[in-house]
Amino acid sequence: EAIHRMLLSSSKSAANPAYFSQSEDSSETYDAYQLAWHLLGYYVDCNSESSYGSGCTRQVLYAVYVNPKYEGGGISEYTYYDITSGKWECYGQGSTCITKMDCHLDDTQWKLLGVFKIDDISQSDGWMEQLFKHEGVCIWGEDTYDFASSMRQKMPSSCTTANQLDENGNALFYDTKPKKNGEITLGLYTDYRCSREYAGNETYDVFQIANSDESYWELFNEALDVYKQCHPCISYDLS
Prior knowledge:
Elements: H1 2-11, E1 18-19, E2 35-45, E3 57-66, E4 78-82, E5 87-90, E6 99-100, E7 111-118, H2 127-139, H3 142-154, E8 160-165, E9 171-179, E10 183-189, H4 206-209, H5 214-224, E11 231-232
Parallel strand pairs: 4-6
Antiparallel strand pairs: 1-7, 2-3, 2-11, 3-7, 4-5, 8-9, 9-10
């Protein structure tokens, strides 16, 4: 299970692995099909032990939920929201689908276990690589999977020198940057930890500096929108 590796990795982090705001006991043992998760977005942490010396850590945030009304029906107990059709689909036999997998909605009956963070967003064997390999290969088409995997590999893994000076002759740097609505892009910074975003009078194209394409980042975020929907915490085959 990809989510299990995420939680295991988070629990061994030098920093606090979770920002708990829970309504259920996270120490309880739950059935694997009773749990769900969804992507929240990204965060810059300049205070964790791992952030010193290598720049401020870029982290991914995701929420984990439990279904308190789970009846033991496994994956076929749920209906799933199809972002393509805009409809809730039941893949179970007969009338076994009794609960919506809707933990991403405000009026959900799922209960929050916690909000977790992972440091390694795009690195090899990091969050994106594991997620794409175990789930993206199933829910994306081949073209989207190849595109997202290529984008992940080209993302900066740390604060990187821009080989560019600002109007005062100071060095500039670039790294990934969180955006609203749980998106991610590139940002230009004035310090080697990429904690202070450039706000000077000159206009610099950080995408050109990083040899990247802004439109590709927009497509990349669109591809990741599917993970903002509620997903099971275990691999499954709906066919």
